[in-house]
Amino acid sequence: MKEMLEKIRSDFAEKIAAAETLAEIEELRVGYLGKKGELTSVLRGMGKLAPEERPVVGQLVNTIREYMETELGTKLTAIKSAESLKRLEEEKLDVTMPGVKKEKGSFHPLNQVIDEMKNLFIGMGYEIAEGPEVEYDYYNFEALNLPEGHPARDTQDTFYITEKILLRTQTSSVQIHVMEHKKPPIKIISPGKVYRSDSMDATHSPVFHQLEGLVVDKGVTMGDLKGTLEIFAKKMFGENTKIRLRPHHFPFTEPSAEVDVSCWSCGGEGCRVCKGEGWIEVLGCGMVHPDVLKRCGIDPEEYSGFAFGIGIERTAMARFGVKDIRNFYENDVRFLKQF
Ligand code: DAH
Predict the structure, then answer these.
(1) What separation in Å is there between the alpha carbon of 174 and the centre of ligand 1?
(2) What value does the mean pLDDT take over residues 236-255?
């Protein structure tokens, strides 16, 4: 009996030494000390022993049980602490590691310029007006003193839907819509897309953006126009900016002018940004032609107005030093990220 117990004990010792997981420990505990465990079976068989042997064997069984319990407990603690160490190691947080950066989008440079212009004019009391990009010939040309066959139409060839419906070539068409529906005082701007059947190159695109301005009221003069454009230029291009009006011709304004701003890069000395000119052309403008007012039911004897049209791409290219207009439309993140 004693030898059998010794054998059980040494088997156990071997197994517990090799055990590595909590499951193995549990298996040993059940296998030796459980209801049907090996040591328990020995106790059950005690009845068959001679009475004088019982206490000796009982004593031995108890010693072995205590030994097993101690061993199981020690091993259990060891495995648990090894496991938690391992977990700590695995879940270790290196607070010195660089974080994972969230990529944040930004407004497209063209929209940045448009938003800046909108804010500026809203600050001066202008309202935003909208007009359709698919437009009647009448609004885009005829009502703006560009009747069929007018030579100036050639410079604004566009995409035709039908003979009388086209993609607008200028935001000036919005002037007509506004004046048809609203009587003076009128003070609006209208930013938007315009189209021309130009081939794509570094400075041309069949789709681009303009921002139209229109003010009609009693006693509006060219001085008001110049003052407004001066504020615009200073706010857009810097406080020291000067403007220069050059006589020009637009069929829907009289007189008409093209407006240059002094170069924001060199201040007028001449540099690469202004191509040595000292000035950069940014817009066309003029006093609304009396025939245009009349056509919209506004009496030119009572009211006068001024209008201007700003090229958004041109402004953005000069402002950000972009050399090729196509960059704006390619949506290359490496380009867009810079603004
Ligand atoms: N629509 C003109 C263009 O595309 C720009 C322009 C010139 C707009 C004079 C105006 C204006 O309102 O008064 O070239």
Answers:
(1) 11
(2) 95
Residue 217: DSSP 8-state: E
Q: What pLDDT, on the 0 to 100 scale, is given for residue 41?
A: 83
DSSP lists the bridge partners of residue 259 as: 245, 283
Q: Which of 239, 224, 130, 216 is nearest to 177 (CA)?
A: 130
Q: Which residues line ligand 1 (CB under 6 A)?
A: 170, 172, 212, 250, 253, 284-286, 307-309
What does the pLDDT look like over 170-195, one tens digit per residue? 999 999 999 999 999 999 999 999 99
Which residue is closest in CA terms to ligand 1's atom 12? Answer: 308
Q: Look at residue 49 in the predicted model and tell me its pLDDT.
A: 82
Question: Residue 62 contacts by C-beta under 8 Å, 6 or more apart in sequence?
Answer: none
Residue range 197-216, pLDDT digits in tens: 999 998 899 999 999 999 99
Listed residue (311, 178, 302) closest to 236, CA to CA:
311
- Which ligand 1 atom is the nearest neighbour of the CA of 156? 4
pLDDT digits (tens, 9 = 90+) for 76-119: 898 889 888 988 888 888 889 898 888 888 999 999 999 999 99
Per-residue tokens: 328 = 């704006």
Q: Which atom of ligand 1 is nearest to the CA of 288?
A: 13
Predicted structure pTM score: 0.72
Which residue from 43, 264, 302 is spatially nearest to 184, judged by alpha carbons?
Answer: 302
Q: Residue 50: which residues within 8 A CB-CB, separation 6 or more? A: none
Q: What separation in angstroms does the CA of 303 have from each of 126, 218, 249?
A: 18, 5, 22
What is the pairing mode between strands 207-217 and 304-311? antiparallel
Q: What is the mean pLDDT of residues 43-61?
A: 83
Cα–Cα dist 8/12, whole Å: 6
The four Cα atoms 70, 75, 77, 81 give a dihedral, to 10 degrees, of 160
Tell me how far apart the alpha carbons of residues 313 and 194 are, in angstroms, rounded to a whole number: 11
Q: Which of 231, 192, 189, 229 is nearest to 208 (CA)?
A: 192
- The answer to whether the CB of 290 falls within 8 A of the CB of 300 is yes
